[in-house]
């Protein structure tokens, strides 16, 4: 059709002295089957590389688990702070008479009680070594090792008045040089005494702490059951609150608990953040350049 149009116009144009350019059509050859196959394979390869494999999902467990452990440490810290607050609230209550029933005594932990009776210094027990407690916590300049501030707690049987049972009273802390009773005779009070003390319960033995011996009057922890068997007393333990002239340092009730959960939660959250960034850079950020 184009040729017919050119022939029809050409005589007139030639007569007029006008030259008409004839367009040239470029025909593209069709794509071969082999080329189509190569294109499909290239597209499929790109899509497959954009997908995350099983190993990538497996490694995602690390930042996820670290984040969960950080959340768990937050809960543990709140729980520990709640325990400390409960102990301080119990200590702030007004003292009550010590009940004679053991079941009632078990409900009075960290509560102050009145007791009246006499000490039996011939059957005292030592517990330690340990630093002195001041203001409800251990002396920060002392350690559990052999230092000038290390000492022992003096546990003495206390015979309650009115034919009451015999209980154990933690009279307080003495330094190592006053470990023996004869070095502190002035503090070995006689006669009937009226005291205010804090009820304490059995203490759990540490993993690496040796067991208490029933025939040795020396203890590393507050093993009330073994102490009561050794000295033939009731399994009731009271921390004395008032000092006696020339006697041990009373008030050895610890109202703080080891609480390092803040450092733990910061560690776990930091680990989750670092490993999460590493995972993103390795598996997600790489896909943007494919």
From TrEMBL:
Protein function: Probably involved in the biogenesis of the COX complex.
GO biological process, alphabetically ordered: mitochondrial respiratory chain complex IV assembly
Claim: NAD is one of the keywords in the record: no
Cellular component terms per the entry's GO annotation: mitochondrial inner membrane
Coiled coil regions in record: none
Ion transport is among the record's keywords: no
Subcellular location: Membrane; Mitochondrion inner membrane
Keywords from the UniProt entry: Membrane, Mitochondrion, Mitochondrion inner membrane, Transmembrane, Transmembrane helix
Family: Belongs to the SURF1 family.
Protein name (record): SURF1-like protein
Main location: membrane
CDD domains in alphabetical order: SURF1 (cd06662)
InterPro entries, alphabetized: Surf1/Shy1, Surf1/Surf4
Membrane topology note: Multi-pass membrane protein
Organism, scientific name: Hirondellea gigas
Matching PANTHER family: SURFEIT LOCUS PROTEIN (PTHR23427), SURFEIT LOCUS PROTEIN 1 (PTHR23427:SF2)
């Amino acid at each position: 059709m184009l040729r017919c149009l050119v022939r029809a116009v050409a005589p007139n144009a030639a007569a007029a002295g006008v030259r008409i350019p004839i367009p040239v059509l470029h025909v593209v050859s069709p794509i071969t089957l082999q080329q189509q196959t190569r294109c499909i394979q290239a597209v499929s390869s790109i899509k497959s590389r954009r997908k995350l494999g099983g190993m990538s999902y497996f490694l995602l467990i690390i930042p996820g688990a670290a984040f969960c452990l950080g959340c768990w440490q937050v809960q543990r810290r709140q729980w520990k702070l709640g325990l400390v607050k409960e102990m301080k609230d119990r200590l702030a209550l007004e003292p009550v008479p010590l009940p004679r029933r053991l079941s009632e005594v078990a409900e009075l932990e960290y509560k102050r009680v009145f007791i009246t009776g006499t000490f039996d210094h011939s059957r005292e027990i030592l517990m330690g070594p340990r630093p002195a407690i001041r203001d409800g916590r251990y002396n920060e300049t002392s350690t559990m090792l052999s230092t000038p501030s290390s000492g022992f707690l003096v546990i003495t049987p206390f015979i309650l008045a009115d034919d009451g049972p015999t209980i154990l009273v933690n009279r307080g802390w003495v330094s190592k040089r006053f470990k023996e009773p004869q070095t502190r005779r002035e503090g070995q009070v006689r006669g009937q005494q009226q005291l205010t003390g804090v009820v304490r319960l059995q203490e759990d033995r540490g993993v690496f702490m040796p067991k208490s011996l029933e025939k040795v009057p020396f203890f590393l922890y507050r093993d009330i059951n073994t102490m009561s068997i050794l000295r033939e007393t009731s399994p009731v333990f009271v921390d004395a609150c008032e000092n006696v002239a020339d006697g041990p340092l009373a008030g050895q009730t610890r109202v703080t608990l080891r609480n390092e959960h803040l450092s733990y939660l910061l560690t776990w959250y930091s680990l989750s953040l670092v490993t999460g960034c590493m995972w993103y850079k390795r598996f997600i950020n790489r896909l943007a350049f494919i």
